[in-house]
Inverse folding.
């Protein structure tokens, strides 16, 4: 499974109408990941001014869950944490109830490796709906590797960090966005515009 960062997952959940996704985390991280994802998606929805986030963290009988999912609109996003004690019953209900869930509803199932296995085995129809949208959450995905970027800047320009800072302090650094980025990455953003 491909690693994905939380922000990218939220973007995909919001931007893919009718797209159901599964994100795999450690069992102990299901609740926290659901809350973090709820905040990210809510931010996106508030920015657009349409839709809502429905968090199905509260345990419901499986048929009631499918009934609640069937009432969601095309601009809504469902977040469905699937802990170990619900794998089998929810998986089967999603499979049997797939036809009742509108095609435009967006959803993310947050579960563990065991939950992914249960969905694949117990909900083949729903699983085919999810398709290739199964990821593992990587908290570092999408984050800039500062040291790698600085190394790239040094290699691309032939300058050292010290030379860039020295030129900025002397006011002789070229007005190029690359050097602005470089100074910011070094924590020397105060030297911009000298």
């Amino acid at each position: 499974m491909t690693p994905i960062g939380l922000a990218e997952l939220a973007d995909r959940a919001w931007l893919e109408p009718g797209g159901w996704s599964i994100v795999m985390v450690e069992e102990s991280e299901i609740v926290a990941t659901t809350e973090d994802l709820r905040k990210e998606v809510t931010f996106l929805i508030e920015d657009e001014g349409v839709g809502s986030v429905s968090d199905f963290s509260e345990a419901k009988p499986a048929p009631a869950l499918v009934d609640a999912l069937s009432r969601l609109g095309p601009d809504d996003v469902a977040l469905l944490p699937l802990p170990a004690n619900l794998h089998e019953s929810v998986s089967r209900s999603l499979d049997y109830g797939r036809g009742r869930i509108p095609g435009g509803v967006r959803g993310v199932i947050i579960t563990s490796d065991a939950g992914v296995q249960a969905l694949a085995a117990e909900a083949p129809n729903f699983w085919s709906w999810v398709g290739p949208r199964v990821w593992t959450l990587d908290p570092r995905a999408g984050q800039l590797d500062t040291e790698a970027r600085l190394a790239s800047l040094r290699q691309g320009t032939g300058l050292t960090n010290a030379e860039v800072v020295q030129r900025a302090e002397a006011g002789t650094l070229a007005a190029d966005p690359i050097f602005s980025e470089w100074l910011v990455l070094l924590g020397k953003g105060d030297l911009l515009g000298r």
The chain has two domains: 2-137, 146-188. Residues 2 and 135 are 5 Å apart (CA to CA). The mean pLDDT is 87. The first helix runs from residue 6 to 15.
